Each structure stands twice: as structure tokens, then as C-alpha cells.
Backbone:
């Protein structure tokens, strides 16, 4: 990698060009120069006030903004699978194409997902906004919202780090977009992905062909922008994502509410009773029963309930329209050591790691990776329209208190509101939607709390240690 530098800016902007809404982001900036002489930027968005970021978060941010997209040991491939176009950034410092960028892009990229096996691994994924006709709908600011707000709430569900990045339009067109269009055209099942590449190719030739232009291009029209992020984990089956029998939209979101963790969250009963009832009811569905397997420990359910409740809250606030079917997991071992909960990431999906105690429990921890269909006013808010928050009877006290504080801040144009309005490149209507949805979410949960229908008992660590959780006494008004 060539040297890079960080610059603390009040506003990360393109010199000499008028700023459009989506070009106005704030944070620490790293600059790179493309082979065409265009100055590109990677922005580590300023921390949300009150956010709790780990050392790993900050390390990942720095790592993403240390990637020179044109280094000889880096290769770029179009993401031609799934529904939305994107760019995979691979480490080719070793392997069969070691430091041979041109040959990797010429030969390996055609392998799709398998291209990663010909590299030393992927460094990041670059996602841009795409909402043209025939596409699945993605918004590059959405992963940034999920990342930073999950740290504000100090959530248990694992949301990946994301940074803002620009790329020379000409370089993206030649190395990624045009190859993406050609490769995706051979895959009949990638209809929306192919449509996305077609719109990107057209827009990079003629920016005015895409509206609004500032959703994709920087103000000088010489660069496209998006986010660098990663998607670790494996896809859950129907045990978390639901059967999806009822089709896209409200139907599959109602199916999602028939999963064991969601059924338990809906049960107005003590935690253990809710867990057992959720599993029992969900197993009546043959597909869910098979995907669950023969034994699901209560400890697993305690984690799932906490994680699903957090997902529902974030999706409600950000009007997420494409959650169901896109929830992942990573396996971890958990055990009690000196009276405290210890854990280690598992190498395999089955028990048998000799480096952990014999009684260690293998659990699946939820990754919320696919977060690019929220934030826009035009998106369908299925968490809201299917009344997911209204049905919750279990919640975490700390998350609830932070929601009350967030709502108070947003209603009074406090520090978080100022951060939201200035740091992520959101338009006024998009900021207003977050404010409105937060107010609605707060009112819904406060009503449940006031009615005595909300148990503040989603503490999976405590449950693992003691086998149960004593509900917290939480003031419904957050005081």
C-alpha cells in the first residue's frame, strides 16, 4: 500500500465545487490519487455522540481507509451475485495471481464468489446507491446509519463497520462496471443485479441519465461514492429469517414474526416461559423445525431474542424494506469461567474444538450485514406496517433508556440531531424521517411499558450465567 494521510475536516468536500446533499459528509479523511489524477477520498465518519466504539471498530475503519484501490497487490471485481451491484476488493499479495492485478481481474473475476478463493481474501466490499427501474433498491448511507446507531445503542447484534469512499468514475467504469455488466449478463437469475450494472454503466457515460445524480456522483461528477464494508457470517435458515412462504413484502414480514425468537418476544410471560413457548409454537412448522435441529438451548434463544429486538428497532427507525431473508450468523463457543461468561469464535459449525472447555456451548451470534435498503423516504417500512414493535413484550432496559434519550435529543435538535444532519450526507427529508420514526418507536414502546406489558429482561449474558433474568425496574419516561 502506498502511504496515506489523515486530515481532520469540518466538512469533507470537493474543492471548488458546490456541495450537494449526499456529498456533505464529516469525519477524518484519507486522500488517494487515481491513475487518472483524480483525488479520491475515504472518510471515517465522525463518531455519533454517546457512541461506544471498540478498538476493533476503529482498527477496521483505519484498515478500510488504508486501502489503495490501485495498488499492485489489490484487485477489483464486480459483485455479480445477489440482487445489487457492488465491488469486491481483494488482497492478491499471494496466491496464483500474486501482485498481478490485471490477470486477476481478467480471469478470476469471472468466477464470481469463487474469485475470493484465488486471492488471500477480501479486503472490503464497495456498495453504491442504486434505485433505478428494475433494481432491488440500495442506499449507500444506510450501512453508515446502522453502524453508528448500533454503537450509540451499544447493541448486542453484530453490525459491521462502514466508511464512506469515493472512486474515479473512469476507473470504476473500465475496471468494474463494464465487466460487471458483461459477467452478470450470463446469469439469468441475476436479473436485478444485471439491471443495476446497466444503469451504472449508462450513468457513468452520462450522469444525467440517473436521477437524482447526487445519489451516486460527487459534486464534480468525476467520482462515484459509496461505502466500504464487509459481510462476515453465514445465512440463517427459516429459524431466524422465516419461511418466506407468503412472498416479498408484508407477507414474509409476517412469516418472520412466526420464528421462535419472535414468538418468544411476543409472549407476555416470564423469560423462561416465553422462550419455551416460542420454541414449542415455532416447531409446529415443519420447515422451521428442521432448520432448528433437535436441540436449541435456552441460552441460544436468549441471545436471539435480544438480537431480534434490536434489529426490529433499527429497521423501524430507518425504514428498512429488505430485512427478511438477509440475516446472518457467526458461530461462537460460550462457557463459564471464574463465574463470568467467556467466549471464542468457532472454526467450525459443529462441536469439537479442543481449545475450549469440554462443556462449552456452541451458539450462533447474529450478524446484521445487509443494511443497504434503509434510510430513504421512498422505502417501505415493513417493521412499521406489520406492527413489529407493538408486539414486543420483552426488551433490554439500557437500549430502552437510550431510545428515550435519543428521541429527546432529536426532538430538541441536540448533538445527535446535529450529527445526523451534517455527517452522513442525508437530505432534509431523510433526516426528518429518522426523527419521525424515532418518535413513533419511542411512543409505541412507552405505551407498552406504561401498560405493564414490557419486560426488561433481555440480558443474555446474565441468563447464561444464572439460567434466568430478573426484570429491571425501568422508568417508562426514561428518567
Residues:
Amino acid at each position: 500500500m502506498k502511504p496515506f494521510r489523515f486530515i481532520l475536516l469540518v466538512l469533507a468536500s470537493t474543492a471548488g465545487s458546490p456541495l450537494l446533499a449526499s456529498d456533505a459528509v464529516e469525519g477524518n479523511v484519507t486522500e488517494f490519487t487515481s491513475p487518472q489524477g483524480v483525488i479520491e477520498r475515504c472518510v471515517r465518519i465522525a463518531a455519533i455522540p454517546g457512541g461506544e466504539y471498540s478498538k476493533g471498530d476503529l482498527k477496521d475503519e483505519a484498515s478500510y481507509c488504508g486501502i489503495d484501490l490501485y495498488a499492485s497487490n489489490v484487485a477489483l471485481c464486480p459483485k455479480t451475485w445477489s440482487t445489487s451491484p457492488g465491488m469486491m476488493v481483494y488482497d492478491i499479495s499471494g496466491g496464483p495471481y500474486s501482485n498481478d492485478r490485471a490477470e486477476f481481474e481478467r480471469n478470476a473475476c469471472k468466477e464470481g464468489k469463487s474469485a475470493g478463493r484465488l486471492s488471500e481474501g477480501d479486503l472490503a466490499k464497495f456498495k453504491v446507491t442504486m434505485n433505478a427501474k428494475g433494481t432491488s433498491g440500495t442506499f449507500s448511507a444506510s450501512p453508515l446509519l446502522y453502524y453508528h446507531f448500533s454503537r450509540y445503542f451499544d447493541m448486542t447484534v453484530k453490525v459491521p463497520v462502514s466508511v464512506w469512499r469515493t472512486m474515479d468514475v473512469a476507473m470504476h467504469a473500465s475496471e468494474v462496471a463494464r465487466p460487471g455488466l458483461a459477467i452478470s449478463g450470463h446469469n439469468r437469475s441475476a436479473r436485478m443485479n444485471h439491471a443495476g450494472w446497466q444503469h451504472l454503466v449508462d450513468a457513468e457515460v452520462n450522469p444525467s441519465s440517473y436521477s437524482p445524480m447526487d445519489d451516486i456522483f460527487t459534486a464534480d461528477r468525476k467520482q462515484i461514492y459509496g461505502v466500504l464494508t464487509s459481510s462476515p457470517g453465514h445465512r440463517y435458515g427459516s429459524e431466524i429469517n422465516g419461511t418466506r412462504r407468503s412472498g416479498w413484502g408484508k407477507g414474509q414480514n409476517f412469516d418472520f414474526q412466526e420464528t421462535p425468537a419472535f414468538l418468544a418476544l411476543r409472549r407476555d410471560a416470564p423469560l423462561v416461559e416465553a422462550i419455551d413457548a416460542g420454541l414449542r409454537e415455532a416447531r409446529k412448522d415443519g420447515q422451521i423445525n428442521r432448520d432448528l435441529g433437535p436441540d436449541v438451548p435456552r441460552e441460544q434463544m436468549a441471545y436471539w431474542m435480544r438480537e431480534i429486538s434490536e434489529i426490529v428497532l433499527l429497521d423501524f427507525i430507518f425504514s428498512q424494506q429488505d430485512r427478511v431473508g438477509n440475516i446472518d450468523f457467526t458461530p461462537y463457543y460460550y462457557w463459564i469461567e471464574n463465574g463470568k461468561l467467556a467466549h471464542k469464535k468457532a472454526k467450525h459449525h459443529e462441536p469439537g474444538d479442543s481449545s475450549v472447555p469440554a462443556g462449552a456451548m456452541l451458539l450462533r451470534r447474529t450478524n446484521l450485514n445487509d443494511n443497504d435498503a434503509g434510510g430513504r423516504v421512498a422505502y417501505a417500512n415493513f417493521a412499521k406496517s406489520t406492527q413489529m414493535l407493538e408486539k414486543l413484550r420483552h426488551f433490554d432496559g439500557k437500549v430502552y433508556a437510550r431510545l428515550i434519550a435519543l428521541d429527546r435529543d432529536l426532538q430538541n435538535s441536540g448533538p445527535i440531531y446535529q450529527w445526523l444532519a451534517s455527517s452522513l450526507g442525508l437530505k432534509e427529508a431523510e433526516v426528518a424521517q429518522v426523527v419521525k420514526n424515532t418518535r413513533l418507536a419511542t411512543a409505541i414502546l412507552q405505551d407498552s411499558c406504561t401498560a405493564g406489558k414490557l419486560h426488561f429482561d433481555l440480558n443474555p449474558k446474565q441468563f447464561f450465567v444464572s439460567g434466568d433474568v430478573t426484570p429491571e425496574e425501568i422508568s417508562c419516561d426514561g428518567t
